[in-house]
Write a structure and sequence with these properties.
The complex is a heterodimer. Chain A is mainly alpha-helical. Chain A is built from six helices and no strands. The mean pLDDT of chain A is about 95. The chains are: A mainly alpha, B mainly alpha.
Chain lengths: ~140, ~140
């Protein structure tokens, strides 16, 4: 048990939640505004994604020069299995839900801070959806 | 086109969070995976995941402390629509091994073919969903 790993997780989660708040991505109507390419298009999400991927890429470059993470033995990288039906089917289903509500897991959890009922409903359903998958589908988690 | 500075800055912080979680703890900041990890056995991994999730909720609280107000949000749709959307988001993100953070940010940054395929897929179905709902005035 490492207090450093636990502190790092809290720091990273808080930074992520603050970034979502600052960028306006906690607002489902902004996210739907980005997805609404036939309507009154809102480019916000493109800027957020660009900024996030650019900085995360720097992290990837630094990681490749490091032998192991600062507070642990090794890097846990996602598997490099081929693109399959589960990946595409799951992503397609996820996208439908994301488009319907304008909420994905990160912003939905961050929005719990505002304590409004619709968010609690969404997050509860989202967790149930995850548990249904993890119980029903034989899963190798990501 | 004008530059959206708060969006760029907020995005950069999200990217920094993803980079730091990998460089410090060796973990991918995929929110769906981290959240699912909270509902498993009680060990250090549980605590690490739970604190990341707690931090996510703390984010808007710190925003409020800095800027003097909650971030603005507008929720469209009633509770039935939100419940169905939540089920799809939860189930789909687990089946597809990731969501906007794990595939869209962390995976894209690694130029992972799987994550690029996943991101293009959920962007496409999300855009189509918003378009079809628009036809029905939703």
């Amino acid at each position: 048990m490492s207090i450093l790993r636990i502190a790092a997780a809290l720091l990273c989660g808080t930074m992520f939640g603050f970034g979502l708040s600052l960028s306006g991505m906690v607002d489902p109507s902004r996210v739907r505004g980005f997805l609404d390419i036939a309507g009154d298009w809102n480019p916000s999400l493109a800027f957020v994604l660009f900024g996030a991927v650019a900085v995360a890429m720097l992290g990837v470059v630094i990681r490749r020069a490091m032998g192991h993470p600062l507070f642990d033995q090794g890097f846990q990288l996602p598997s490099t299995t081929p693109i399959d039906k589960r990946l595409i089917g799951g992503s397609a289903i996820f996208g439908i839900g994301w488009g319907m509500a304008g909420l994905c897991p990160g912003p939905a959890i961050a929005d719990l801070a505002l304590g409004v009922t619709p968010i609690v409903v969404f997050v509860t359903a989202m967790v149930i959806g995850m548990l249904i998958h993890d119980r029903a589908v034989s899963s190798s988690s990501c | 086109m004008s530059i959206y500075w708060p969006q760029l800055a907020g995005g950069a912080l999200i990217g920094l969070s993803v980079a730091l979680l990998m460089l410090l703890n060796g973990r991918t900041a995929g929110i769906s995976g981290l959240l699912a990890g909270v509902f498993r056995k009680l060990d250090e991994r549980f605590l690490v995941n739970a604190l990341f999730v707690a931090g996510l909720i703390l984010g808007p609280v710190i925003y409020r402390a800095v800027f003097g107000g909650w971030p603005e949000i507008h929720i469209q749709g009633g509770v039935v629509l939100l419940a169905i959307a939540g089920l799809l988001v939860g189930f789909g993100s687990r089946l597809g091994s990731g969501c906007t953070s794990g595939h869209g940010v962390a995976g894209m940054a690694r130029l992972s073919p799987r994550s690029i395929a996943a991101t293009l897929t959920f962007m496409a179905t999300a855009i189509l969903t918003v378009f079809v709902m628009g036809l029905f005035g939703l």
